[in-house]
Specification:
This protein is about 10% helix and about 30% strand. The protein is built from six helices and 39 strands. A hairpin with a 5-residue loop joins strand 27 and strand 28 (about 365). The longest helix is centred in the C-terminal third of the chain and has 30 residues, at about 535-565. It comes from Muntiacus reevesi (Reeves' muntjac). Cadherins are calcium-dependent cell adhesion proteins. They preferentially interact with themselves in a homophilic manner in connecting cells; cadherins may thus contribute to the sorting of heterogeneous cell types.
């Protein structure tokens, strides 16, 4: 920098400010020359804006306005291309056409794209030919070889180079690695490793039993390797089946129907394996399926006997006698040996042992009498067992139906009790009868009704059979008198129409009743004769009952009132009758005058004023009467007698029986002490003659002690 004011005498000073001033850029303050202190990188900062000014060295004042100038960094090719990823991963289907897109790689150059070719990148393949190629300008990788087979090679590693300067000599370059995997397509059909398979199975194998496994190999993977197995031809299309194990992709041959060695010993099947997912563009390679022959040999086993039927149904009349044959069952050993068979009844199904079976020929016969009305069907189980091998047995259900025989008479459907009005007219219907029968005839029930022969003549009623298993009872005369006859018993004979004819006699009760004009029953009891006073016996009884009830009510009311008077109003802890105060103090004897304060009895002030009894209902309210205090020198006997007299004359004394006991021993006892403890300390023998003077109560004691003295004297 140079100022026009600079005369070269050193009076001016140049200063620099702005981006990098004093750090990247410095200025010679005398000459104004600007220099860079270190190497500059355009990729870090391409432009610097600086400001310069010339000032007077002595005064520090600017001699010219501040000037701004821009420093631009020119680019050189000092950065190589860099890929966005160090390693790329890509997939492409196997057998793809040439030119199939795989992946696109991208590299960037930090140099200035507007200045020369420093940032112009060109792509090329260093490793991966001839399988893949890359477009030089876009970096798109494509397949370059036809029919690349995953089953031959699955993984490829491709190295791509990016070079600047348009790929010319002297350009900088960078590389990246692309890992390419061929994905599977269904281009391989399944193949059986062998053409024939052979298995064995016993004839006793139940349906669903697996016999063996076969497997076809497929070079593909995933769903392209899934295989479906099927039986396409053979003698056992309906006897065997094949299913696919989804985990192992094996075909499992199973039994579909029961096998019989005696009927067929060997089966030949043709099993086919195919891919369920097929790509049409590979059908030219051939059918995507394969077949193999499977031979199955049935092995003979000792089988249980086989009945001729899956179930048997027999019929027998209920009047059949014991040991009557009903029918028979048949079973035989299916094996070639034809072992003999014996029969038996499973007693768990015939607990009452009603039926039995001939163990040799299988004939079923009765062992007890039957009753269809008790049990219509008998369901039992018959067992057939090989005689030579009892472990081999089989069972068959046997259903026995008991046929009906007319062995039950008909009877009334319910108990019939009806009434007839006293003023009933002749031929009036009073009751409809119905009957039931436990039997079940093939043509249905047909009942007939009639009066019993002993009641048919002279009866006041008639029976009319309606021919529909019902009958009606009709009056035979006009008017009935319940005072003469209040109850009629009609014996009715009911017969059926089956063979042999069964009949029974039922009784219909008919009461004579008083009815209103509409025929509604009012009373069926005979009324008592009317007394001259105009009241019947029933009315008198009703009046007496009312009087007795009234008297009982009055007595009960009086008793309850008296009981209520005696009932305590308050049941509390202050009720003196229910409280016992125990002090547990041991007294000092008769001579102890300090154990009890007699002043308590002599002090009537201790009684609470106006304190009434709370345990009963008071009949009259009296104020408590104060008694004069006793003198201090009053004898206790006199004090108690005074109190007894006061209570006897007290109108507020309790009205119920109350016993107040005042026990006073007196001044002393003429017998002194009866303790035996004191007698031990005496020097001489005691004289017990005085015991005889105490009266008859001490006679026994006098005899005991008096006798001792007599013994000593003797």
């Amino acid at each position: 920098l140079h100022s026009d004011q600079d005369r070269g005498d050193g009076s001016l000073k140049y200063i620099l400010s702005g981006d990098g001033a004093g750090d990247l850029f410095i200025i010679n303050e005398n000459t104004g020359d600007i220099q860079a202190t270190k190497r500059l990188d355009r990729e870090e900062k391409p432009v610097y804006i600086l400001r310069a000014q010339a000032i007077n060295r002595k005064t520090g004042r600017p001699v010219e306005p501040e000037s701004e100038f821009i420093i631009k960094i020119h680019d050189i090719n000092d950065n190589e291309p860099i890929f966005t990823k160090e390693v790329y991963t890509a997939t492409v289907p196997e057998m793809s056409d040439v030119g199939t897109f795989v992946v696109q790689v991208t590299a960037t150059d930090a140099d200035d794209p507007t200045y020369g070719n420093s940032a112009k990148v060109v792509y090329s393949i260093l490793q991966g030919q001839p399988y893949f190629s890359v477009e030089s300008e876009t970096g798109i990788i494509k397949t370059a070889l036809l029919n690349m087979d995953r089953e031959n090679r699955e993984q490829y590693q491709v190295v791509i180079q990016a070079k600047d300067m348009g790929g010319q000599m002297g350009g900088l370059s960078g590389t990246t690695t692309v890992n390419i995997t061929l994905t599977d397509v269904n281009d391989n059909p399944p193949r059986f490793p062998q053409s024939t398979y052979q298995f064995k199975t016993p004839e006793s194998s139940p349906p669903g039993t697996p016999i063996g496994r076969i497997k076809a190999s497929d070079a593909d993977v995933g769903e392209n390797a899934e295989i479906e197995y099927s039986i396409t031809e053979g003698e056992g299309l309906d006897v065997f089946d094949v299913i696919t194990d989804q985990e192992t992709q094996e075909g499992i041959i199973t039994v579909k129907k029961l096998l019989d060695f005696e009927k067929k010993k060997v089966y030949t099947l043709k099993v086919e394996a195919s891919n369920p997912h097929v790509e049409p563009r590979f059908l030219y390679l051939g059918p995507f399926k394969d077949s193999a022959t499977v031979r199955i040999m049935v092995e003979d086993v000792d089988e249980p006997p086989v009945f001729s039927k899956l179930a048997y149904t027999l019929q027998i009349r209920e009047d059949a006698q014991i040991n009557t044959t009903i029918g028979s069952v048949t079973a035989q050993d299916p094996d070639a040996a034809r072992n003999p068979v014996k029969y038996s009844v499973d007693r768990h199904t015939d607990m009452d042992r009603i039926f039995n079976i001939d163990s040799g020929n299988g004939s079923i016969f009765t062992s007890k009498l039957l009753d269809r009305e008790t049990l219509l069907w008998h369901n039992i189980t018959v067992i057939a067992t090989e005689i030579n091998n009892p472990k081999q047995s089989s069972r068959v259900p046997l259903y026995i139906k008991v046929l009906d025989v007319n062995d039950n008479p008909p009877e009334f459907a319910e108990f019939y009790e009806t009434f007839v009005c006293e003023k009933a007219k002749a031929d009036q219907l009073i009751q409809t009868l119905r009957a039931v029968d436990k039997d079940d005839p093939y043509s249905g029930h047909q009942f007939s009704f009639s009066l019993a022969p002993e009641a048919a003549s002279g009866s006041n009623f008639t029976i009319q059979d309606n021919k529909d298993n019902t009958a009606g009872i009709f009056t035979r005369k006009n008017g009935y008198n319940r005072h003469e006859m209040s109850l009629y018993l009609l014996p009715v004979v009911i017969s059926d129409n089956d063979y042999p004819v069964q009949s029974s006699t039922g009784t219909v009760t008919v009461r004579v009743c008083a009815c209103d004009r509409q025929g509604n029953m009012q009373s069926c009891h005979a009324e008592a004769l009317v007394h001259p006073t105009g009241l019947s016996t029933g009315a008198l009884i009703a009046i007496l009952l009312c009087i007795v009830t009234l008297l009982v009510t009055v007595v009960l009311f009086a008793a309850l009132r008296r009981q209520r008077k005696k009932e305590p109003l308050i049941i509390s802890k202050e009720d003196i009758r229910d409280n016992i105060v125990s002090y547990n103090d041991e007294g000092g004897g008769e001579e102890d005058t300090q154990a009890f304060d007699i002043g308590t009895l002599r002090n009537p002030e201790a009684i609470e004023d106006s304190k009434l009894r709370r345990d009963i209902v008071p009949e009259a309210l009296f104020l408590p009467r104060r008694t004069p205090a006793a003198r201090d020198n009053t004898d206790v006997r006199d004090f108690i007698n005074q109190r007894l007299k006061e209570n006897d004359t007290d109108p507020t004394a309790p009205p119920y029986d109350s016993l107040a006991t005042y026990a006073y021993e007196g001044a002393g006892s003429v017998a002194d002490s009866l303790s035996s403890l004191e007698s031990v300390t005496t020097d001489g023998d005691q004289d017990y003659d005085y015991l005889s003077d105490w009266g008859p109560r001490f006679k026994k004691l006098a005899d005991m002690y008096g006798g001792v003295d007599s013994d000593k004297d003797s």
